[in-house]
Amino acid sequence: MKQVQLPCCMGGVRVTVKNKWTNMSKNKRNFIITELLLGVLLVIGIGFIAYNKLNEKPERIAVVMADVDESHSAAFKYGMKMAASEYGVDVVMISKENLNNMSDEIDVINQEINKKADAVVKPTAEKMTEEKSLNTLIRINKKTPIMVVGDQAGSESFKSLNTVEFDQYSMGAKLAQKLLADNNGTLSGKKIGIYCENTESDACKKRIDGIKDTLAESGCVVMWIVSGVSDTGEKINLLSQRKVDIVLAIDDASVVEAAKEASDNNLQGALVYGIGNSTEAIYYLDSGWAEALITPDEFAAGYKSVVGLVDMLRGSRKYSVEEKPVSYQLLTRKICLMKKTRSFCMQSASSGGTINEKQNKKYHDDTVFCTDIVICLVQQHKS
Q1: How far apart are alpha carbons 355 and 283 in whole angstroms?
Q2: What pTM, to 2 d.p., does this model score?
């Protein structure tokens, strides 16, 4: 409180002027000062975070895979690119030749991590199960998230890693169900052969189990189950197997080979049912040399692999290996025939797959077969 002496013209009256600030207790003044300082710091902090957000680089996800035929990976890549666009991350495809074992892959993975990759997608392959390299991969995964995707992702080897898995058993069962449906629910007296690139792989074992369980009481006889390649690495001749009525070719390489032999009249009239999703496999389906195909949803696999890594990097949730397995589609010739021009289909396919001159002759001007599974699957994802 402050006293002020007014001039004589005002009667020389002494008045008291109240000053709220000086009248406050010391503790209250300190509280207000503290609040103001905190407010200023909060504004500065928000501005700093906003500035960093504007200037920070998007997460970089490296996809390390063998330099494979584009027709086998187009949908997978498209799914990853779609997720990358939606979530604002950079997905870099690293395709290398001569990735013959996991050790080679790990060298490339380390190179990408040194180039500031925040996470890695690793499509699986049959040969990549060396214990020493697996342990190295697990150690890397503790610092840099690695997502294992593909046919072997569900195997025991990769149980300690993040995985996007296909429902192998259900695909085998679905193929067998289609076979039963085409034969009025009974296969009495029918002889069946099962053909797979590697019958010892986790994927093929589960698919075979699905087939056997579904056909257990159908009346059919499974005459043989063979791998496309022997233990010594030699190619096994499909034509040397005993005559059967139906060949179930349960991976892409096998269905392409079996359908080709059928088109050359080398299977003695056996019908081919298969699992696959390459351009060649779809071509043989359209040509009538394969009765039906189960196609793993590679688009969804690519999409989920990126989303799972983004979730881990941003901490929005902990990715679970118990996620629902990637789905699949049953394709028949009817499903993949579209009343469109061939040029539209080719331009729409992300892989730019081609049809050779011999194959092209069979198409009518007003009916076209989509030569890339991307078309059949992506259309459904967009609808």
Answers
A1: 9
A2: 0.72
- The beta-strand segments (E) located in 144-243 are 146-149, 162-164, 191-196, 221-227
- Which H/E stretch holds residue 323? none
CB 373, CB 78: distance < 8 Å: no
Letter for the amino acid at 324? K
Distance CA 160, CA 354 (A): 40
The neighbouring-strand residues paired with 121 are: 63, 147
Q: Is 183 helix (H, G, I), strand (E, B) or coil?
A: coil
Amino acid identity of residue 161, one-letter, is L
Using the 8-state DSSP alphabet, how is residue 229 labeled?
B
Pairing of strands 14-17, 2-5: antiparallel
Question: What DSSP string describes 44-78?
Answer: HHHHHHHHHHHHPPPPEEEEEEE---HHHHHHHHH
| pLDDT digits (tens), the chain, 383 positions | 555 455 555 555 554 555 555 656 666 667 677 777 777 778 777 766 655 555 568 899 999 887 666 666 788 889 999 999 999 999 998 877 666 677 788 888 999 999 999 999 988 765 455 677 788 888 998 899 999 887 777 676 777 788 888 899 999 999 999 999 999 999 999 999 999 988 888 889 999 999 999 999 999 999 999 998 776 667 778 888 999 999 999 999 999 999 999 999 999 999 999 999 888 999 999 899 999 999 998 899 999 999 999 998 988 655 554 456 788 989 988 766 643 333 344 444 444 444 343 443 333 333 334 444 444 444 445 44
Query: How crowded is residue 149: how many other Cβ atoms within 10 Å of its Cβ?
Result: 28
Provide the 10 A C-beta neighbour count for residue 303.
24
